[in-house]
Design brief:
single chain; 357 residues; mainly beta; Immunoglobulin-like; four-stranded antiparallel sheet
Length: 357
């Protein structure tokens, strides 16, 4: 086994490795590394394939450097496993840890995208959303929209992410077979919602919430409450809400801090609100220089999206064709509160607030 290593200031060491097993065409099934003392085959630190797949005899590897040993000379051991689970011989090399590389900058995912088959280039794919609404970690769970699958047959799905230095990583690729029955999806709807204060009473045991339009029938719903959940203590409390889908499964609870005044007597009237389209901005808050998605509960025709600052000055304006989702880029935007105008070519305008930090 031979290896080549380059140390980079990105939090990873990139290695290329070739096995000398005699079986021609033998693919890799995994790899591991260790520093100084050999823990035994299968007990080292796992290594990732640079392209996300162990499918070649020669593989580019990603070795995390967030846990480098102390300064000085150390022995780096590296070995690979074939597709049958047999570990090959160990390759060792001496690595000198200098003070200059003893600290590694923070690694964060700032954007992610995907594309089918042909690579449009870094930054030109279809944007993806972080599951928690915020790209702030080195590992992120991301959502991929399947509303527009490619034609029936075999396709290559590629996913890649961008780091804090605006550098796009290597695409991770997987083969996807689009079957005739896979192009239709069950309706995603909210069927119920509830809230509770501080202590979780259990799914389905909270105080029910009402759909603003009187009907739970959409994937996005505007909700209104009734009585304040009890028991409650005056002052700062955490108010939690969650929703249930068509399969009867409750989603995760979302909590906000609310200052509750228990000295108010009687009831506080809530004026009836006109039914309107539901729009969600995600992520919100977002970061300066990053874009965001606008999602609607139904399809709009050609639409302009206008971004204005707190003083009403137009920061950006974009035009989109008919859809229920648009990606709005933000460039050279300072931190602050912005108003997002959704201006269909026909019908009323809608405004939402976006926080940029």
């Amino acid at each position: 086994m031979a290896a080549r290593m380059e140390a980079e200031r990105t939090g990873f060491m990139v290695l290329a490795m070739a096995l000398t097993w005699t079986a021609a065409g033998q693919g890799l099934g995994g790899a591991e590394y260790y520093w100084d003392n050999d823990p035994g085959a299968g007990n080292g630190q796992a290594v990732m394939a640079a392209d996300g797949a162990w499918d070649d005899v020669i593989e580019g590897l990603l070795l995390e450097t967030s846990g480098l040993p102390g300064e000085g000379a150390h022995t780096l051991g590296l070995r690979a496993r074939n597709a049958q689970g047999s570990w090959g011989p160990t390759f060792t090399t001496v690595v000198v840890i200098d003070p200059a590389i003893g600290s590694v900058p923070e690694i964060r995912v700032t954007l992610a995208e995907y594309f089918w088959d042909d690579d449009p280039g870094g930054g030109s794919g279809i944007p993806m959303i972080a599951m928690d609404g915020n790209y702030d970690a080195a590992l992120e769970a991301i959502m991929l929209e399947t509303d527009e699958l490619p034609a029936i047959g075999t396709h290559t799905l590629s996913v890649r992410s961008r780091d804090a230095n605006a550098v796009w990583g290597v695409p991770f690729r997987v083969i996807v077979d689009v079957l005739p029955g896979a192009v239709s999806f069950p309706n995603v709807e909210v069927t119920a919602a509830e809230c509770f204060v501080n202590t979780d009473p259990g799914e389905g045991s909270g105080t029910p919430l009402l759909a603003l339009d009187g009907d739970f029938g959409s994937a996005f719903e505007a909700l209104q409450g009734g009585s304040i959940p009890v028991p409650v203590i005056a002052g700062a409390n955490v108010l939690w809400t969650r929703a249930r889908d068509t399969n009867g499964a409750w989603g995760p609870a979302f909590g906000i801090v609310a200052n509750i005044d228990t000295t108010i007597t009687g009831t506080v009237g809530v004026p009836d609100m006109e039914q309107e389209r539901v729009f969600v901005l995600a992520p919100n808050p977002t970061e300066a220089g990053k874009g965001f998605l606008i999602r609607s509960d139904r399809v709009l025709g050609p639409t302009r999206v206008r971004v204005t600052d707190a003083e009403g000055r137009i920061v950006a304006e974009h035009r989109f064709n008919g859809s229920n989702e648009w990606y709005v880029p933000l460039a050279d935007v300072a931190a602050g509160v912005y108003h997002i105008g959704i201006l269909p070519s026909e019908g009323q305008a809608y405004w939402r607030r976006l926080v940029v930090h």
